[in-house]
Amino acid sequence: MGGADVVPGVSGGTVAFITGIYQELLDSIKSFNGDAFNILKKGRLKDFWQHINGTFLLVLLAGIFTSLLSLAKLITWLLASYPIQVWSFFFGLIIISAILVMKEISSWNWRVILFGIIGIAIAYYVTIASPAETPTDLWFIFIAGAFAICAMILPGISGSFILLLFGKYEYILNAIQEINLSVIVVFALGCITGLLSFVRLISWLLDRYYNAAVALLAGFMIGSLNKIWPWKEVLEYRIDRHGVQKAVLEESVSPATFMEVTGQDPQVLSAILFMALGILLVVGIEKAASYNVGPQK
Known about the structure:
Strand content: 5-15%
Mean pLDDT: 81
Number of strands: 2
Helix content: over 70%
Number of helices: 15
Low-confidence stretches: none
Distance between the termini: 20 Å
Strand order of the largest sheet: 1-2
Order of helices and strands: HHHHHHHHHHHHHEEHH
Largest sheet: 2 strands, antiparallel
Protein backbone atom coordinates (compact mmCIF):
# COMPACT_ATOMS: atom_id res chain seq x y z
CA MET A 1 0.00 0.00 0.00
CA GLY A 2 2.84 2.39 0.79
CA GLY A 3 4.53 1.74 -2.54
CA ALA A 4 1.27 2.30 -4.41
CA ASP A 5 0.45 5.53 -2.55
CA VAL A 6 3.80 7.03 -3.55
CA VAL A 7 2.75 7.03 -7.23
CA PRO A 8 0.24 9.72 -8.29
CA GLY A 9 -2.41 7.67 -10.10
CA VAL A 10 -2.12 4.40 -8.17
CA SER A 11 -4.16 3.73 -5.03
CA GLY A 12 -3.15 1.91 -1.89
CA GLY A 13 -6.83 0.99 -1.55
CA THR A 14 -6.48 -1.16 -4.67
CA VAL A 15 -3.72 -3.18 -3.01
CA ALA A 16 -5.80 -3.55 0.16
CA PHE A 17 -8.75 -4.85 -1.86
CA ILE A 18 -6.89 -7.40 -3.96
CA THR A 19 -5.01 -8.75 -0.92
CA GLY A 20 -8.29 -9.34 0.91
CA ILE A 21 -7.68 -6.96 3.85
CA TYR A 22 -9.94 -4.11 2.70
CA GLN A 23 -12.94 -4.95 4.88
CA GLU A 24 -10.77 -5.59 7.92
CA LEU A 25 -9.01 -2.26 7.32
CA LEU A 26 -12.35 -0.42 7.22
CA ASP A 27 -13.62 -2.19 10.34
CA SER A 28 -10.40 -1.49 12.24
CA ILE A 29 -10.45 2.23 11.43
CA LYS A 30 -14.16 2.39 12.24
CA SER A 31 -13.46 0.89 15.67
CA PHE A 32 -11.98 4.24 16.80
CA ASN A 33 -15.26 5.32 18.37
CA GLY A 34 -16.75 6.37 21.68
CA ASP A 35 -16.55 2.85 23.09
CA ALA A 36 -12.84 2.67 22.32
CA PHE A 37 -12.10 5.92 24.14
CA ASN A 38 -14.25 4.91 27.12
CA ILE A 39 -12.22 1.72 27.42
CA LEU A 40 -9.00 3.73 27.17
CA LYS A 41 -10.14 6.20 29.86
CA LYS A 42 -10.65 3.30 32.25
CA GLY A 43 -7.05 2.26 31.71
CA ARG A 44 -7.95 -1.08 30.12
CA LEU A 45 -5.12 -0.95 27.60
CA LYS A 46 -5.30 -4.61 26.56
CA ASP A 47 -9.05 -4.37 25.88
CA PHE A 48 -8.50 -1.12 23.95
CA TRP A 49 -5.81 -2.74 21.83
CA GLN A 50 -8.11 -5.65 21.00
CA HIS A 51 -11.05 -3.35 20.32
CA ILE A 52 -9.17 -1.35 17.67
CA ASN A 53 -7.49 -4.48 16.20
CA GLY A 54 -4.21 -2.88 17.17
CA THR A 55 -1.85 -5.63 16.02
CA PHE A 56 -3.32 -5.59 12.51
CA LEU A 57 -3.08 -1.79 12.26
CA LEU A 58 0.43 -1.67 13.72
CA VAL A 59 1.79 -4.28 11.29
CA LEU A 60 -0.01 -2.64 8.36
CA LEU A 61 1.28 0.85 9.21
CA ALA A 62 4.78 -0.52 9.74
CA GLY A 63 4.64 -2.07 6.28
CA ILE A 64 3.35 1.15 4.71
CA PHE A 65 6.03 3.33 6.31
CA THR A 66 8.77 0.80 5.52
CA SER A 67 7.68 0.86 1.90
CA LEU A 68 7.47 4.65 1.83
CA LEU A 69 10.98 5.00 3.21
CA SER A 70 12.56 2.27 1.10
CA LEU A 71 10.64 2.50 -2.19
CA ALA A 72 9.85 6.20 -2.61
CA LYS A 73 13.21 7.14 -4.16
CA LEU A 74 13.36 3.91 -6.19
CA ILE A 75 9.89 4.39 -7.69
CA THR A 76 10.61 8.05 -8.42
CA TRP A 77 13.82 7.05 -10.22
CA LEU A 78 12.08 4.29 -12.15
CA LEU A 79 9.31 6.66 -13.26
CA ALA A 80 11.92 9.13 -14.50
CA SER A 81 14.14 6.50 -16.18
CA TYR A 82 11.64 3.89 -17.43
CA PRO A 83 8.23 5.61 -17.53
CA ILE A 84 6.63 3.40 -20.20
CA GLN A 85 7.59 0.17 -18.43
CA VAL A 86 6.50 1.41 -14.99
CA TRP A 87 3.15 2.79 -16.16
CA SER A 88 2.56 -0.38 -18.21
CA PHE A 89 3.18 -2.47 -15.10
CA PHE A 90 0.67 -0.42 -13.11
CA PHE A 91 -1.81 -0.49 -16.01
CA GLY A 92 -1.76 -4.28 -16.00
CA LEU A 93 -2.01 -4.30 -12.22
CA ILE A 94 -5.08 -2.04 -12.15
CA ILE A 95 -6.97 -3.65 -15.04
CA ILE A 96 -6.73 -7.16 -13.59
CA SER A 97 -7.59 -5.76 -10.15
CA ALA A 98 -10.80 -4.28 -11.56
CA ILE A 99 -11.71 -7.64 -13.08
CA LEU A 100 -11.07 -9.47 -9.81
CA VAL A 101 -13.11 -6.91 -7.88
CA MET A 102 -16.04 -7.30 -10.29
CA LYS A 103 -15.95 -11.04 -9.63
CA GLU A 104 -17.10 -10.16 -6.08
CA ILE A 105 -20.44 -8.95 -7.48
CA SER A 106 -22.92 -11.78 -6.97
CA SER A 107 -25.90 -10.21 -8.73
CA TRP A 108 -26.06 -7.68 -11.57
CA ASN A 109 -28.98 -5.26 -12.02
CA TRP A 110 -29.55 -1.70 -13.25
CA ARG A 111 -28.46 -0.18 -9.92
CA VAL A 112 -25.19 -2.10 -9.87
CA ILE A 113 -24.46 -1.07 -13.47
CA LEU A 114 -25.34 2.56 -12.69
CA PHE A 115 -22.97 2.65 -9.72
CA GLY A 116 -20.22 1.17 -11.90
CA ILE A 117 -20.75 3.87 -14.53
CA ILE A 118 -20.75 6.59 -11.85
CA GLY A 119 -17.44 5.25 -10.50
CA ILE A 120 -15.89 5.25 -13.98
CA ALA A 121 -17.11 8.80 -14.66
CA ILE A 122 -15.82 10.21 -11.36
CA ALA A 123 -12.38 8.59 -11.64
CA TYR A 124 -12.01 9.55 -15.30
CA TYR A 125 -12.90 13.17 -14.54
CA VAL A 126 -10.28 13.21 -11.79
CA THR A 127 -7.65 12.02 -14.30
CA ILE A 128 -8.37 14.79 -16.83
CA ALA A 129 -8.84 17.64 -14.36
CA SER A 130 -6.13 20.28 -14.44
CA PRO A 131 -4.21 21.01 -11.21
CA ALA A 132 -5.48 24.20 -9.64
CA GLU A 133 -3.74 27.18 -8.08
CA THR A 134 -4.88 26.98 -4.48
CA PRO A 135 -4.20 28.88 -1.24
CA THR A 136 -1.63 27.79 1.31
CA ASP A 137 -3.83 28.78 4.27
CA LEU A 138 -4.06 26.15 6.99
CA TRP A 139 -7.83 25.71 6.52
CA PHE A 140 -7.19 24.59 2.94
CA ILE A 141 -4.36 22.27 4.02
CA PHE A 142 -6.88 20.63 6.39
CA ILE A 143 -9.37 20.13 3.52
CA ALA A 144 -6.66 18.78 1.22
CA GLY A 145 -5.66 16.24 3.87
CA ALA A 146 -9.26 15.12 4.39
CA PHE A 147 -9.86 14.57 0.66
CA ALA A 148 -6.47 12.98 -0.01
CA ILE A 149 -6.76 10.37 2.75
CA CYS A 150 -10.27 9.44 1.56
CA ALA A 151 -8.89 8.84 -1.92
CA MET A 152 -6.00 6.77 -0.59
CA ILE A 153 -8.38 4.12 0.79
CA LEU A 154 -10.56 4.09 -2.35
CA PRO A 155 -9.45 1.51 -4.91
CA GLY A 156 -8.63 3.28 -8.17
CA ILE A 157 -8.33 6.84 -6.89
CA SER A 158 -4.90 8.01 -5.80
CA GLY A 159 -4.50 10.26 -2.78
CA SER A 160 -1.22 11.55 -4.23
CA PHE A 161 -3.03 12.55 -7.43
CA ILE A 162 -5.77 14.29 -5.43
CA LEU A 163 -3.04 16.36 -3.79
CA LEU A 164 -1.70 17.16 -7.26
CA LEU A 165 -5.15 18.39 -8.33
CA PHE A 166 -5.35 20.49 -5.18
CA GLY A 167 -1.94 21.91 -6.06
CA LYS A 168 -0.48 20.68 -2.78
CA TYR A 169 1.51 17.53 -3.64
CA GLU A 170 4.95 19.17 -3.64
CA TYR A 171 3.90 21.64 -0.95
CA ILE A 172 3.15 18.80 1.49
CA LEU A 173 6.31 16.88 0.54
CA ASN A 174 8.39 20.00 1.10
CA ALA A 175 6.67 20.63 4.44
CA ILE A 176 7.62 17.11 5.55
CA GLN A 177 11.23 17.50 4.38
CA GLU A 178 11.54 20.91 6.07
CA ILE A 179 9.67 19.70 9.19
CA ASN A 180 7.09 22.50 8.96
CA LEU A 181 5.15 21.41 12.04
CA SER A 182 2.14 23.70 11.60
CA VAL A 183 1.46 22.39 8.08
CA ILE A 184 2.21 18.78 9.04
CA VAL A 185 -0.07 18.83 12.10
CA VAL A 186 -2.99 20.50 10.29
CA PHE A 187 -2.63 18.14 7.33
CA ALA A 188 -2.56 15.15 9.68
CA LEU A 189 -5.68 16.39 11.48
CA GLY A 190 -7.43 16.70 8.13
CA CYS A 191 -6.38 13.15 7.26
CA ILE A 192 -7.68 11.78 10.57
CA THR A 193 -10.99 13.63 10.28
CA GLY A 194 -11.53 12.55 6.68
CA LEU A 195 -10.53 8.96 7.37
CA LEU A 196 -12.77 8.42 10.40
CA SER A 197 -15.81 9.93 8.69
CA PHE A 198 -15.35 8.51 5.18
CA VAL A 199 -14.64 4.95 6.31
CA ARG A 200 -18.07 4.87 7.93
CA LEU A 201 -19.72 5.87 4.66
CA ILE A 202 -17.89 3.17 2.68
CA SER A 203 -18.66 0.56 5.36
CA TRP A 204 -22.34 1.56 5.34
CA LEU A 205 -22.48 1.16 1.56
CA LEU A 206 -20.74 -2.23 1.68
CA ASP A 207 -23.02 -3.47 4.47
CA ARG A 208 -26.29 -2.43 2.82
CA TYR A 209 -25.57 -2.26 -0.89
CA TYR A 210 -22.62 -4.62 -1.30
CA ASN A 211 -22.90 -5.32 -5.02
CA ALA A 212 -23.52 -1.66 -5.92
CA ALA A 213 -20.66 -0.50 -3.68
CA VAL A 214 -18.24 -3.02 -5.19
CA ALA A 215 -19.34 -1.93 -8.69
CA LEU A 216 -18.59 1.67 -7.66
CA LEU A 217 -15.10 0.68 -6.45
CA ALA A 218 -14.45 -1.31 -9.62
CA GLY A 219 -15.63 1.71 -11.62
CA PHE A 220 -13.07 3.87 -9.83
CA MET A 221 -10.35 1.47 -10.94
CA ILE A 222 -11.49 1.37 -14.57
CA GLY A 223 -11.85 5.16 -14.75
CA SER A 224 -8.36 5.64 -13.34
CA LEU A 225 -6.78 3.69 -16.23
CA ASN A 226 -6.63 6.89 -18.27
CA LYS A 227 -4.18 8.35 -15.76
CA ILE A 228 -1.76 5.43 -15.95
CA TRP A 229 -1.91 4.84 -19.72
CA PRO A 230 1.80 4.53 -20.67
CA TRP A 231 1.79 6.86 -23.70
CA LYS A 232 1.07 10.54 -23.04
CA GLU A 233 1.28 13.84 -24.90
CA VAL A 234 2.12 16.73 -22.58
CA LEU A 235 -0.25 19.66 -23.11
CA GLU A 236 0.96 21.96 -20.36
CA TYR A 237 4.15 22.38 -18.34
CA ARG A 238 5.09 24.36 -15.26
CA ILE A 239 8.33 25.23 -13.49
CA ASP A 240 8.64 23.96 -9.91
CA ARG A 241 10.41 25.74 -7.06
CA HIS A 242 13.73 24.16 -8.09
CA GLY A 243 13.47 25.45 -11.65
CA VAL A 244 12.66 22.02 -13.10
CA GLN A 245 10.09 21.77 -15.89
CA LYS A 246 7.25 19.37 -15.04
CA ALA A 247 4.15 18.20 -16.90
CA VAL A 248 0.86 19.27 -15.32
CA LEU A 249 -1.64 18.41 -18.06
CA GLU A 250 -1.33 15.32 -20.26
CA GLU A 251 -3.46 13.49 -22.80
CA SER A 252 -3.45 9.75 -23.50
CA VAL A 253 -2.40 8.94 -27.08
CA SER A 254 -1.71 5.83 -29.15
CA PRO A 255 1.84 4.46 -29.32
CA ALA A 256 2.08 5.66 -32.95
CA THR A 257 1.00 9.20 -32.01
CA PHE A 258 3.40 9.13 -29.06
CA MET A 259 6.29 8.42 -31.45
CA GLU A 260 5.16 11.21 -33.81
CA VAL A 261 4.78 13.79 -31.04
CA THR A 262 7.85 12.97 -28.93
CA GLY A 263 10.15 11.29 -31.44
CA GLN A 264 10.73 8.53 -28.87
CA ASP A 265 10.39 4.78 -29.31
CA PRO A 266 7.00 3.71 -27.79
CA GLN A 267 8.57 0.37 -26.73
CA VAL A 268 5.31 -1.49 -27.34
CA LEU A 269 6.71 -4.99 -26.81
CA SER A 270 8.35 -3.97 -23.54
CA ALA A 271 5.08 -2.33 -22.44
CA ILE A 272 3.08 -5.49 -23.15
CA LEU A 273 5.55 -7.60 -21.18
CA PHE A 274 5.34 -5.29 -18.16
CA MET A 275 1.53 -5.21 -18.36
CA ALA A 276 1.59 -9.01 -18.30
CA LEU A 277 3.95 -8.89 -15.31
CA GLY A 278 1.49 -6.64 -13.44
CA ILE A 279 -1.38 -9.00 -14.25
CA LEU A 280 0.55 -12.08 -13.13
CA LEU A 281 1.62 -10.38 -9.90
CA VAL A 282 -1.96 -9.49 -8.94
CA VAL A 283 -3.26 -12.96 -9.80
CA GLY A 284 -0.53 -14.43 -7.61
CA ILE A 285 -1.31 -12.04 -4.74
CA GLU A 286 -5.04 -12.77 -5.05
CA LYS A 287 -4.47 -16.52 -4.95
CA ALA A 288 -2.17 -16.22 -1.93
CA ALA A 289 -4.56 -13.85 -0.15
CA SER A 290 -7.61 -16.08 -0.74
CA TYR A 291 -5.63 -19.02 0.64
CA ASN A 292 -4.52 -17.12 3.76
CA VAL A 293 -7.47 -14.91 4.69
CA GLY A 294 -10.45 -16.33 2.82
CA PRO A 295 -12.98 -14.42 0.72
CA GLN A 296 -13.39 -10.66 1.04
CA LYS A 297 -17.14 -10.60 1.59
